[in-house]
Amino acid sequence: MSARVSRALLIGLIAIAAVLAWHLYDRLYANRGQLVVIRDAAAPDTLVLEWHHEIKLPMAKLIADAFAANKAKVKRFIIDLDSPGGSLDEGSAVIAAIDAIKKTREVDTRVTAGHDCLSMCVPIFLQGQRRMASATSHWLFHAPRSVDYFSGKDVKTPRFEQRYYAHEYFDTYFRASPIDKAWLQRNAPKWQGRDFWRSGRQIYEERSNIITGLM
User: Fold this and answer.
1) DSSP of 46-65, one letter per residue?
2) What are the pLDDT digits (tens) for 40-58?
3) Within a domain: residue 22?
């Protein structure tokens, strides 16, 4: 078999593998979370994207797909969150998807009455240009934890590794965020190695700049 034929065969096999991987992705993740897309009745140029699940696949893809399908029709997107947190990797992908939308459209975030924005949900909420939340919403800050993919249980990791990932998480998602630096300096130590809970009212009245307005 000539080198040219071998190369062509290899390229063909890679293409087939890519198609199979994409179909497997769809089967595994298509029903894991549902993005609800709603046209705002009070503002026809606004589209609401509701995500009331863990931060996990395929959240970023669904947001990107919703933008691609509707960008010609609307000027503003609202991402409505109610989430217990979840994957750092998917959270990072979601933030990248939101950044892409913000290049040409307004993007606001919100958490309504009684809903949660916990853990990785907070960095996603911070991507909103306007960030609205209810006084009765619930908020949780903590350092990242390693979780077993299959059992969902926390996995113990070496202390140096915990410190490294906590530092990276803090720098990536909080230090460069819109959060008031004085609030961050006072409170960040409180979520190192423990859970730090807040209500929407507390966060707003403490002038953290996480929430820009109460609903």
Assistant:
1) EEEEEE-S-B-TTHHHHHHH
2) 888 889 999 999 999 999 9
3) no
